[in-house]
Amino acid sequence: MKIRALIVLLVLVALVVPTFSTMAQDEVELRILWYNDGNEGDVMRDLLDRFEEDNPGISVELDVVAFADIHNILQAQVESGTEAPDLARVADTARFRPST
């Protein structure tokens, strides 16, 4: 399951990044809100370092937080209107669905 989540995240990054290639040649900075589970943070940082080497002009900030805090931090960042990450690793998306 952890590997699947990592693969999904990498696919999302791969889908988002090409949209920036049609924009001006300005520096692009992406921010990922991420919780560590074992050594996944180190693995992800290594993958992102390689990605940045292969894609000059694109940098990725990996904002690592505790698993217990990720939903509260993400919710606060989204509600701020200015601090939301480009991507976030979450375990429970139901929390972010509109209540009816």
How is this structure best described in words?
The protein is of the alpha/beta class and 100 residues long. It has one domain: Rossmann fold (3-Layer(aba) Sandwich). 41% of the residues lie in helices and 18% in strands. The protein has a three-stranded parallel beta sheet, with helices on both faces. Strand 1, helix 2 (40-54) and strand 2 form a beta-alpha-beta unit. It is globular.
Quick description:
The protein is α/β, with parallel strands linked by helices and 100 residues long. Helix content is 41%, strand content 18%.
Strand content: 15-25%
The portion of residues assigned to helices is 40-55%
Unreliable runs: none
Count of helical regions: 3
Predict the CATH topology: Rossmann fold
The secondary-structure element order is: HEHEHE
The description of the largest β-sheet is: 3 strands, parallel
Average pLDDT rating: 82
Query: What is the β-strand count?
Result: 3
Overall domain count: 1
Task: Chart the SSEs and their pairings.
Blueprint: H1 2-16, E1 28-35, H2 40-54, E2 58-65, H3 70-80, E3 87-88
Parallel strand pairs: 1-2, 1-3
Core attributes:
100 residues, alpha/beta, 3 helices, single chain, 18% strand
